[in-house]
Design brief:
The chain has about 350 residues and is an alpha+beta fold. Helices cover about 50% and strands about 20% of the residues. The chain contains 12 helices and 12 strands. A 4-stranded antiparallel sheet has the order 7-6-8-9, with helices on one face. A two-stranded antiparallel ribbon has the order 1-2. Strands 3-4 form a two-stranded antiparallel sheet. A hairpin with a 2-residue loop joins strand 1 and strand 2. Helix 1 packs across helix 4. It starts with a helix and ends with a helix.
């Protein structure tokens, strides 16, 4: 929600900067709970907290025809194509800057190992899963002598592991008698791990920790981290944003031909579930996840179909190249194909999440 509001703020500030008339800037969607007018712009707060929007006068030729001449002079559609491109691109640009800033800060601070984070950035539209790598083993705990730092946990008790599911599976074991501090579980946890490129299964009996109120085996998720340097981190952030973007676009194409890729798609429900996992994994992962979502917002908004930002940019650039107006009807006919394809992806994501919840 915050990323969408900041996206709209980019449009708003750019429109003001080039002299366009902005009628309204709203935090959240109608019905309006509160509004105040400052000059020609109304600022409001809506009741539905799903983002926000900015209304610039004259976004379509039909609207311009009904305006007062002085107002029409500052309408979006009557401005030079370069001004329209600046205003429209400003929204995705804000999301790109947010993604870059978060990736750069995390990598430079050493909060997370760069390779570990990027290994878990899955740019097939849908997810960033926190690392299930073993960062450290606690002395005197059941995992000591069995697990090693760097081991990658693939599954726990036969089920594919995420950070959250692994913790839950370990906690589900019970001591043979009363749950007293230090008692060992009646049955061992079966950990399927990848170590030095080889997959193997290890058995570890969790112990009950009274202070934490759960069973544990005594290791930390994550990866050892060292700062990569401010300038190096900036380069890594840019490179990985580009790699994630190209891979994302490639996988969108594959979604129409590969059932395997289609089944990986998520809707907002699945994204929320993944966001929970990143928060459990730690603030660093949560921030990288926010950066990745910001990158997705930028890329999707730049798809060249109206009413997406990319459609408005294409419309303006095509007008500049042709040297004359392009009809709105022609643009909408062109855009209808792309919007149907995007709707297909969204519906697939919703269907997948319903299936996961039901299963």
């Amino acid at each position: 929600m915050l990323l969408i509001v900041l996206h709209e703020l980019g449009h708003f500030l750019a429109a003001k900067a080039v002299g366009m008339r902005v009628e309204r800037f709203s935090l959240f969607f109608p019905p309006t709970l509160f509004s105040v007018r400052r000059g020609e712009t109304e600022y409001g707060i809506g009741a539905i907290p799903l983002g926000g929007y900015v209304k610039i006068t004259g976004m379509s030729p039909e609207e311009v025809g009904d305006l007062d001449p002085e107002v029409a002079r500052r309408a979006y559609y009557t401005q030079a194509p370069w001004k329209r491109v600046v205003v429209i691109f400003a929204g995705p640009a804000v999301n790109l800057l947010i993604a870059f800033g978060l990736f750069w800060a995390i990598l430079a601070s050493g909060s997370l190992n760069g390779a570990s984070v990027l290994e878990n950035l899955n740019p097939s539209i849908h997810t960033l899963v926190p690392s299930t790598s073993v960062a450290a083993i606690e002395r005197g705990e059941p995992a000591q002598g069995t697990l090693r730092p760097g081991d990658r946990i693939i599954a726990v008790d036969g089920r594919r592991a995420s950070v959250t599911s692994a913790m839950d599976a370990i906690a589900a074991h019970r001591c043979a008698g009363a749950q007293v501090n230090g008692c060992l579980a009646a049955t061992p946890v079966q950990l399927t791990i990848r170590r030095a490129g080889h997959v193997q299964t290890l058995s570890i009996r969790p112990r009950y920790d009274k202070e934490l109120g759960r069973m544990l085996i005594g290791f930390d998720f994550g990866a050892a981290a060292k700062p990569v340097g401010v300038f190096a981190a900036a380069g890594v952030a840019v490179n990985e944003m580009w790699a994630a973007t190209t891979s994302m676009i490639s996988n969108i194409g594959k979604a129409f031909t590969s059932s395997k890729v289609r089944h990986q798609l998520h809707s907002v429900v699945g994204i929320t579930e993944i966001a929970h996992e990143t928060v459990v994994a730690g603030a660093g992962y949560a921030l990288v996840f926010a950066g990745f979502i910001s990158l997705i917002l930028a890329v999707f908004n730049l798809f060249p179909f109206l009413p997406l930002d990319g459609g408005h940019i294409l419309w303006s650039v095509a007008e500049k190249v042709r040297g004359r107006r392009i009809s709105l009807g022609a643009m909408y006919r062109y855009s209808s194909v792309g919007l149907v394809l995007l709707a297909f992806l969204v519906i697939n994501g919703i269907g997948n999440d319903i299936g996961r919840l039901g299963g």
